[in-house]
Amino acid sequence: MENIAEIGIIGGSGFYSFLENMKEMKVETPYGAPSDLVATGEIEGRKVAFLPRHGKLHTLPPHMINYRANIWALNSLGVKRIIAPCAVGALQSRYKIGDLVICDQFVDRTRGRKDTYYDGPRAVHVSSADMFCSHMMQLTYDRAKEMDLQIHRGGTAVIIQGPRFSSKAESRWFTSMGWDVVNMTAYPECILAAELALCYMNISLITDYDAGLIGAEGVQPVSAAEVIRAFGKGVDNMKKLIKTVIPLIGKKRTCKCPHSLDEAVVS
Ligand SMILES: [Zn+2]
Q: Which of 17, 132, 170, 187 is 20 to 30 A from 262, alpha carbon to alpha carbon?
C-alpha cells in the first residue's frame, strides 16, 4: 500500500469534495482503527489521502481520537507530508475571527493521551524544539499572502485535554504567557508525525475568542451573525489555500523532517 498517497490531510469533513477519483479504504494499524475510512484520490495530479479527524459523522470527541492509529494509517499508505487544519480559539486580541495562523510551537496541556510509538525496548527521544515542517509553512504563508488572506506566520498553540473548554483563569494564564491560540487536537498529532519522520503542518482557523478574552480590552464584541459569516469565510479561505498549496509542495523533501530520528535513538 506504500504508493497510494504522498500527502495526507487530517481535518473536517469539508475536504471530501477536493479529491478527484475518490475511493475510500479501511486501513488497519497495530494501534487499532483510525477515526474512519481513509479517502484517497488526486488533487492537481498529486496523490492525497484524507482522514476526517473526528470521524465522518463527527462522533469522536478530541480526547477519544486514536491519534496513533490516524498518523500510522496515513504513513502506511505512503504519506510523507501531513497538512492538519483545525479550529482554534484566540488567546490574543490581535487576531480576528476567520484569521488563519500557521502555528510553529505547542504547549501540551493534555493528559493521559497515548503520545508515542516508542514504548520500549528501544529508547527514542524525538526533539520537539522545532518540529513543524519549515518547507510547507513557508510555502503556505507565501501563497496565502499572494491570495490576500489574513494569515499569521508562527504562533503557539496550547492544546487542552477537553472536552471542556478553559476556565477564565486558565485562559487568562495562557494569554499572559503570550501564547496565541487554544485547541484540543494538535497534540499529540504533531509529535506522532515527527516520531515517524513525517512532515507536519498545522493551519489554525480562529473561530472565536477564548473565555479569558471575552470583554477584555481591545476585543470587539461580535454578534452571532458576524461570527457565522467570518467563520464561513475562514473555512472557505482555508480550503482554497490548502488546495492551491498541494501542487506546489516539492516532490523531494529537502526540509529536516526526514531526519527527525537521526539522533533520537538512544539504544
Ligand atoms: Zn518537512
A: 187
Q: Which CATH superfamily is domain 7-259 in?
A: Nucleoside phosphorylase domain (3.40.50.1580)
- The model's confidence at residue 223, banded by pLDDT at 50, 70 and 90, is confident
**So where are the chain's domains?**
7-259
| Listed range (34-43, 69-78, 134-143, 208-217) with the worst mean pLDDT | 208-217
CA 9 to centroid of ligand 1, rounded, Å: 14
Distance 76 CA to ligand 1 centre (A): 18
Residue ranges near ligand 1 (ion) with Cβ within 5 Å: 133, 199, 255, 257
Q: What's the CA-to-centroid distance between 256 and ligand 1, angstroms?
A: 6
**Long-range CB contacts (within 8 A, 24+) of 15-22:** 15/50, 15/52, 15/239, 15/242, 16/50, 18/43, 18/48, 18/50, 18/239, 18/242, 18/243, 19/43, 19/48, 19/50
| Of 65-69, 72-76, 165-169, 214-218, the least confident | 214-218
Is there a catalytic annotation at residue 208? yes
99 is catalytic: no
Q: Are strands 100-102 and 151-153 parallel, antiparallel or unpaired?
A: parallel
Instruction: Answer yes or no: pTM beyond 0.85.
Output: yes
Expressed in angstroms and rounded, the spacing between residue 2 Cα and the centre of ligand 1 is 19
- Cβ neighbors of 16 (< 8 A, separation 6 or more) are 22, 39, 50
Cα of 244 vs centre of ligand 1, distance in Å, is: 18
